[in-house]
Design a protein that fits this description.
Largest sheet: 6 strands, mixed
Radius of gyration: 36 Å
Bound molecules: iron/sulfur cluster
Strand content: 5-15%
Distance between the termini: 72 Å
Length: 519
């Protein structure tokens, strides 16, 4: 056997080509060897559906809770019965669970849920690998108003029984959520009538749907045209409501042709957008939402009393204490809370507004502000800084408060050297001041809000009341409604609040029990 150069032994059968071995080392690198991808094969794989998701996956918690609740209202419309022919619908327990789990993941589209049921393990687990049509999901979300409300109350009952709901202190707040409509969808009455006329002609041009074989595409087109006509008819009704509410003329009042019931509201960033005002009542011990509401009014005034009635209806009792910001601290609310025996904590801004308004009015100098006028209760008169007497001239009775007006003699003020600083521009009357006489409940409220204890409670308001608002907007992605119209928007808020509460239950109860059971 020949011995190669360098003293290396040659393996038997592998003869070295002397000419090749004499060449310099190869300059082209050898191709790396890797495993090929073979997509031409067909294969069967074992799939354990039960093990698609882990033991502590929130989808399991949602399914478990939905099994504990009475869903009779959701089952009632089902016509299919055991032993009879007909299409078998999906189980309402599954559809409830799918929507709750979807909202918890920030998904509010029926089409997106249907897509995820084909590939995402948690959705596949919930469906048992079945595929739910998006029409079924979409209809289910909006067709069970009363049953959904009942479900919300039942979940509150579960949370309450586990010690997660206390009505010792409830924080109430409002937040604006954008409607499913653009700012450019608003039209005046005249333009809405033109669009409606056109929509009616298009619907008439479709002919009688019974005369033609319906196709899916044609049915969808017909439905879209009819819905557009309905929205425009509703927009004409809404534009009249806007005119009356805002006392606007025909040229000013507008309504959206996309979502006629939406109203333009100021947003937290200072801008304006078509929106709804969402009202949430949150108990403070575990930040559970105990009441929801939606209004077309951009103002929070007038929303509190109805909201607390709903909390009482949901939980069978009134809150012991209610905390709100200045938007709700009206005389009506202070008096109503006192009548109901509810401890009310809020900002005094609105109550003090009229009194503060007198201070710097019309360029009055600081030394002539109302608080520089001395009140003599025995004679019921005021004495001005120049020593002149202001006598009682009249009363203005309002709920919870009476405003007493006192006025100095006109002829004295006209010749007074301080007139330009005390009542500048007031040429026809003497200087007047207002004394506010509060009703006992108002006075007690004002005194209470000066105490450190009440101020400390009020300071907690933002953290508690704004927590669910932020969660629903940021974690669930509900910064804009997907549905249109007040009724459907209310349902969307209810689904979101229900999901939020169930997420709190998973976090505060279900997970802890699971860990304890496994240890
Ligand atoms: S203007 Fe009239 S009220 Fe004012 S200081 Fe003079 S007298 Fe008094």
């Amino acid at each position: 056997m020949s011995q190669p150069e360098g003293g290396q032994k040659q393996l038997p059968g592998l003869e070295v080509d002397a000419a090749a071995s004499a060449l310099p080392a190869a300059t082209t690198p050898l191709r790396p060897r890797v495993k090929p991808v073979d997509r031409s094969q067909l294969t069967w794989r074992m799939l354990d559906v039960e093990r698609l998701i882990e033991e502590d996956h929130p989808a399991r918690a949602v399914w478990e809770l939905s099994g504990r609740l009475k869903l009779d209202g959701f089952y009632a419309p089902i016509e299919a019965v055991e032993g009879a022919a007909g299409r078998t619908p999906w189980d309402p327990r599954l559809l409830v669970s799918l929507w709750i789990y979807a909202y918890s993941r920030g998904i509010s589209s029926a089409r997106e849920i249907a897509r995820r049921c084909t590939y995402e393990p948690a959705f596949q687990w919930l469906c048992g690998l079945g595929e739910v049509n998006h029409h079924t999901l979409s209809d289910f979300r909006v067709n069970h108003d009363a049953s959904l409300r009942e479900l919300f109350v039942q979940v509150l009952g579960v949370l309450s029984s586990e010690g997660l709901v206390s009505l010792e202190r409830v924080m109430h707040d409002g937040t604006r959520i954008k409607a499913c409509a653009g700012a450019d969808s608003f039209r005046r009455e005249e333009r809405l009538r033109e669009h409606l006329e056109l929509a009616r002609k298009q619907v008439e041009a479709m002919g009688d749907p019974r005369e033609e074989e319906p196709t899916r595409k044609r049915s969808a087109q017909e439905r879209a045209l009819r819905e557009r006509q309905q929205r425009l008819e509703q927009a004409l009704e809404e534009v009249q409501k806007v005119r009356q509410a805002k006392r606007q003329d025909k040229e000013q009042a507008r309504a959206s042709q996309s979502d006629p019931q939406a109203r333009v509201m100021k947003q937290s960033d200072g801008g304006y957008a078509p929106s709804y005002n969402v009202q949430l009542s949150t108990e403070s011990s575990h930040r559970i939402i105990v009441g929801t509401g939606v209004t077309q009014s951009g103002s929070d005034y007038g929303q509190l009393i109805g909201a607390l009635a709903q909390v009482e209806a949901n939980l069978g009792k009134k809150p012991a204490q209610v905390v709100v910001d200045g938007g709700f601290t009206t005389r009506e609310n202070i008096m109503s809370m006192a009548e109901q025996g509810i401890d009310f904590v809020g900002s005094l801004a609105e109550v003090n507004q009229r009194i503060a308004g007198q201070k710097g009015k019309r360029g009055v100098g600081e030394e002539f502000y109302t608080d520089k006028f001395i009140y003599d209760a025995r004679q019921d008169v005021f004495r001005c800084p120049a020593g002149e007497i202001l006598r009682h001239k009249g009363r203005d009775f309002r709920l919870g408060v009476t405003f007493h007006q006192y006025r100095a003699p006109t002829e004295r003020c006209r010749v007074c050297p301080f007139q330009s600083k005390c009542c500048p521009g007031n040429l026809h009357h003497g200087r007047s001041v207002i004394r506010t006489e509060r009703a006992p409940a108002m006075q007690q409220f004002a005194e209470k809000m000066q105490t450190e204890a009440a101020k400390a409670v009020y300071r907690q308001r933002g953290a508690v009341a704004e927590f669910p608002n932020a969660w629903i907007k940021d974690k669930m992605g509900l910064k804009q409604f997907r549905l249109r119209g007040l009724i459907k928007v209310r349902l969307e808020v209810l689904w979101a609040a229900l999901t939020y509460n169930i997420q709190q239950w998973i976090r505060l109860s279900w997970r802890i029990k699971l860990v304890t059971a496994n240890n």
